[in-house]
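Shipment paperwork, digital attachment
Item: protein structure file
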Amino acid sequence: MTKHQLIQCDGHGWAPWSIVCVHLADGKSRDWVPVPSNLDEVDYDWLCPACDPENPDIELLRGFC
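Attachment content:
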C-alpha cells in the first residue's frame, strides 16, 4: 500500500507536495534541476545546480503544493 504524503495549502486544502530548494524558491537561482520524486502524484522535486541531490542540506529544502 502506498502512503500518500500531503501538505496543507491555504489555496488548495490538502494537496500533494514536492520539494524545492530555497535558492529556487527565493529566486536566487533560475536553473531548475528535476530530481525524481518518490510520490505517485508528483513527478519531480526541484533543486538548483548548487544543491547536491545525493546529499541535500535539509535546512535548504521546502515543501510546496
